[in-house]
Amino acid sequence: MNKSSITLLLFSVCLGLSINTVIYASSSSTLPADLLYNNKPINPLCFDQGELSNKTLSLTDNCELEPINVLGQSKELLNEGYYGFEYKLKDDSGFASSYSYYKVIGYYNHLYTLLLISNTGGSGHFSSLYLVNRDQNKLHIKTLPFGGDRCNGGLNEVTQNKNIITFTSNITPGDFLSISNNNPEQLQAYDDLDACAACCVATASYTTDLQKDSTKATLTSIQFSKDPETLSDLKSPEHTGYQACFNKLVLSYITKDKTTLSVQELGTFMNEFNSKCTQAKKSNL
Asked: How many angstroms separate the Cα of 167 from the Cα of each of 2, 49, 52, 211, 218?
């Protein structure tokens, strides 16, 4: 090994040590004690693993995680109250890195509500909600069925007041078919209306009650996006059929500054869609 290689190796080791020092120094001071282990923040990857909705993991076994190399942190996310890091698996020879961060949303009845955002090297940006209970060196984790990848259910604002969690979730045109319960022609997401992970058109607001069924959420309203990119996509001449008609209807609401709809108003919107778009297309066949 030549001198330059040795210097590079020592620099890498020192950088890794300094990164870990910064991570734990910047995080442990504001996290509740239940979310610390050996005076360090619990690894976010402990929460973000497995398909089971309920799981118990041992902190003494490092949650049975694979070894990783920590690459750094996002200052922006740290400033927003998140705890976590960018990383790569130690046996991963690829160039893509991943990230995992969590934020404490609230605490009720011995359960912490955590919002976790993550990526495993692709284009996705996943968000999830967890209820976490600490019992000595055991973590009892319940995954709530809310969240997703970007426009496919990705979470935005999440707040908690005692037992009530309120959150907004990104939705696509295709989601209107299911959340409205007003789809008499049985149109399909993807086939008839856009539903891709980059096809955001609105956000939906929900509440869930931890005293009742934490896996059930009640829709309270939807809000159309006025983001310039979204508006440009809605105006695109490339859209045809149901999608073009849906876009035209959304734009008419935005033009009238009717961007927030109650559940009842969502029903009215879908009635208009069904009469102007689906019935009109049937009559032209």
From this structure: 56, 22, 22, 17, 10
- The Cα 23–Cα 34 span in angstroms is 18
* Rg, Å, the chain Cα set: 23
99-109: pLDDT as tens digits: 999 999 999 99
Its pTM stands at 0.87
> In this structure, what token pair is assigned to residue 90?
């130690």
In order, the DSSP letters of 134-195 are: EETTEEEEEEEEEEEETTBT-EEEEEEETTEEEEEEEE-HHHHHHHT---TT---BTTTB--
Q: Is 62 helix (H, G, I), strand (E, B) or coil?
A: helix
Query: 87: helix, coil or strand?
Result: strand
- Report the pLDDT averaged over residues 226-250: 94
Question: pLDDT at position 8, please?
Answer: 35
Cα angle 258, 270, 169 (rounded to 5 degrees) comes to 70
Q: Read off the pLDDT of residues 185-219 as tens digits, 9 standing for 90 and up.
A: 999 999 999 999 999 999 999 999 999 999 999 99
C-alpha 246: how far from its chain's center? 25
pLDDT of residue 122: 86
